[in-house]
Design a protein that fits this description.
two-stranded antiparallel ribbon; elongated; mainly alpha; 267 residues
């Protein structure tokens, strides 16, 4: 009985390299949102001037530091993951995006080190009296000020600059629906203006202006991460057409006029 002996095998198509790239970039973008609990976790060290003299637990601060380290690595990862794709659109701007992500990570690490220094002084020095206590508190204030400035630059200003660079590349390449990078391009000048306002004392970090400025950037990065994880890059994008042709052994010109077949490289 031939029908009884017949077996059916199902093979899943392997995930291509571009889909893997999109998935990796999307997951890394979503990991950057681990910084959200920082206000609660870092609250005791940022809001209490005498924290460095206290005897409370440092567990919350250390957990926040670990999350910030994960965020810093994820930020670098987004640039590294997307660069091979984005350089097909504009290599110079793509390189600028990667550089900005590296700079953002470096500034975040400076802020992390400043908080760890406060924790170390608090654990090693303990409670002291008189002038020594005042000097210790002053040192703690200085280290917290460094953290506040690194947050303003790395996690407020630079996301706006990154939104301009990556938003432009995504908008022009059509790798994702244009409404997603458009949100980032609209939000970028808002958050940059908010940072400038904070530098000159026009508005506070927690204010209506600052809150409105942050929302579009947060929405753009979250939507980008979700889209890349769930959908990947748009298959109809010109860059994807060029990738498919190259994978099939055809040399493609992806210049301003769009993909154009030049020479078959394989029979």
């Amino acid at each position: 009985m031939a029908s009884a002996n017949r077996t059916t095998t199902t093979k899943r198509a392997p995930m291509d390299s571009m889909r893997k790239t999109a998935l990796a970039a999307g997951v890394l973008y979503l990991l950057t949102f681990l910084s959200i609990p920082r206000l609660a976790l870092f609250g005791p060290i940022l809001d209490n001037p005498n924290y460095i003299l206290g005897a409370a637990s440092d567990t919350g601060v250390l957990v926040g530091v670990i999350l910030e380290m994960i965020v810093a690595l994820a930020i670098v990862g987004t640039g590294v993951a997307l660069f091979p794709v984005l350089k097909r659109q504009n290599e110079g701007i793509a390189l600028g995006f990667v550089s900005a992500r590296l700079f953002e990570t470096g500034v975040i690490v400076v802020g992390i080190i400043s908080l760890l220094t406060v924790v170390t002084l608090r654990q090693d020095v303990g409670v002291v009296a008189g002038a020594d206590a005042a000097a210790l508190v002053t040192t703690g204030h200085a280290l917290v000020a460094i953290q506040n400035w690194t947050f303003l630059i790395a996690q407020t200003l630079l996301p706006g600059i990154n939104a301009i660079l990556l938003g432009y590349l995504m908008y022009r390449s059509r790798l994702v629906p244009r409404i997603i990078p458009l949100v980032g391009l609209v939000g970028a000048p808002l958050i940059i203006s908010s940072v400038i306002g904070q530098m000159f004392g026009v508005n506070e970090p927690i204010s209506v202006w600052s809150g409105i400025a942050v929302l579009p950037i947060a929405l753009w990065e979250f939507a980008l991460g979700i889209w890349l994880v769930v959908k990947g890059f748009n298959r109809s994008a010109p860059l994807m057409s060029g990738h498919a042709a190259e994978a099939g052994g055809v040399a493609v010109d992806t210049g301003p006029v769009g993909p154009r077949t030049l020479v078959p490289t394989r029979g």
